[in-house]
Amino acid sequence: MFNPDEPLSMSTTSEPIPGRYVVVFDQTTPAGPLRSMGVLQDEAPRMLEEEGYSTQLYFPRLGIAIVDSESAQVAEFKERCASRRMPLNVVPERVYRIQAGDSTEAVPSEPPFSDSDNLTWGLQAVQAVESGYTGAGIRVAVLDTGFDAAHPDFTGRDVTTKSFIAGEDANDGHGHGTHCIGSACGPRGVDGQRGYGVAPGASIYSGKVLSNAGSGTDAGILAGIDWALENDCQIISMSLGADVKEVHPPYVAAGRRALELGTLIIAAAGNNARRSQGNPGFVGAPANSPYIMSVAALDEQLQVAEFSARTLPGRGGQVDISGPGVRVYSSWPGSQRYHTISGTSMATPHVAGVAALLSEATGYRGRELWAELVQEAQRLEQLSVDVGAGLTLSPLPAES
Amino acid sequence: MTQDKNEGETYSETVIVTIRSKDLEQIDDVAQKLQAAGLVIDNVLKTLGQVTGRAAPDSMASLREVDHVESVSPQRSMGVPPPDSEIQ
Predict the structure, then answer these.
(1) Which of the pair, A378 or A30, is modelled with greater confidence?
(2) Which domain holds residue B46?
(3) Is A132 left (phi over 0), alpha (psi -120 to 50) or beta?
């Protein structure tokens, strides 16, 4: 049974006011903006009046009312509205005071992270398991060196592969692609091994745009993007690039077109920094395109990695967000099965995996998904030119 | 990630032609005109609105003049380091 007097689970320096409640008409799920406007402007205040509540403190644009009520009555009101397909949230109104001293708000997990018997440090850091979402129903394209689709950890998974390299099939003869797909979409639990994949429920689209030797060209990469768009992939992960400062026009157009179609392209910032030698590097192509999200690499302390490239001055050249990218354990082709490597290439699929969880949780795609990733990222006490919005974080679990 | 390198042939190079996003429906027409202007077409990417192909360096300017073309760029190479490299 719903208890409106139950305190919120977040820490706060506020206190509830007895007999006063904040009623929030929740129009986030159904039916679209027109219905929402009608509900909030007409139906909601009518329901309040029928209940005997004043509508003096009802804000129709917000769909929020402050009411005087017994807790039992407001609980009944919530049930009644829910049965009429008008879901409500009700919380006690609170008095707020300026916070004194340290905030005690708990961060669920803290650096330094390390791989446990069950989970890589990266999965712990992005809080993938806690979220409960798996990326189910979301299609993630990874454009890379291909994929070892026979890898035992991916048995039974929904996998689509295609090669854009002349003379090579879609199999991964390098390892990089299988490693990236592992971080984005691999399992969270493996018998006797660490789980390493952020979005194990997502459908995998592996476009081989880099050869077994690890090289590719625009023609193949753009054909891979076109293929991912045709297949309506919500997310395209590209752990590839060239260490050039010039923005490359084809990727500006490709990133913009992808967003128009509801697809977010996420790319590695680049590994051209040597920070201990005073060289912070720069974001290369295609991550420096304005409509492509650029990902920096963090280590287990959540510090920017030695090799991770810094924001390039100019439009589009910024680092947008960060992910785990040092000593990353993930899948590898053939009998080796697993490998631990570092790079912004490894950080990128972590962000792509989190994007899949967020897209599943919110329904957002394209620009909205970009905004949600940035909004939900954990800010870090480092330069924004190095880490952007900070560490990518998985969505909170759905309320039961 | 590796240094960019161009592997263009001497007599022609691979180019990426981007069609203006509002003119995407005309991509087949545009492709024909590009062909007439000297482009040997490898691929028409209809969803993305791009045409990839090969052209002699002295025909770049005429490709850029074709109606509805937003940009013509010489192809770049991209890549990742070898599998045994620690940073990838």
Answers:
(1) A378
(2) 13-74
(3) left
Residue A347 DSSP SS3: helix
Measured in angstroms, the CA of B51 and the nearest CA of chain A are apart by 9
Q: pLDDT tens digits for A48-60?
A: 999 999 998 888 8
**To probe the interface with A, which of B40, B51, B78, B84 has the most A CB atoms within 10 Å?**
B78
Q: How far is CA A341 from CA A128, A299, A329, B84, in A?
A: 20, 12, 7, 9
User: What residues contact residue A224 under an 8 Å CB cut-off, 6+ apart?
Assistant: A141, A143, A162, A164, A207, A208, A209
Report the CATH number at residue B46.
3.30.70.920
Residue whose tokens read 């309320």: A399
Which positions ≥6 away from A130 have C-beta within 8 Å? A108, A394, A396, A397
The domains located in chain A, with CATH, are 15-95 (3.30.70.240), 121-387 (3.40.50.200)
Q: Is residue B5 part of a domain?
A: no
In a domain, B43, yes or no: yes
Whether residue A105 is predicted with pLDDT greater than 70 in this model: the reply is no
A-to-B residue pairs, Cβ atoms closer than 8 angstroms: 142
What residues form DSSP beta bridges with A342? B87
Nearest residue on chain A to B22, alpha-carbon basis:
A257
- pLDDT tens figures, B15-34: 999 999 999 999 999 999 99
- Chain A residue closest to B41 (CA)? A219
Q: Would you call A219 and B79 a contact, using CB atoms and an 8 Å cutoff? A: no
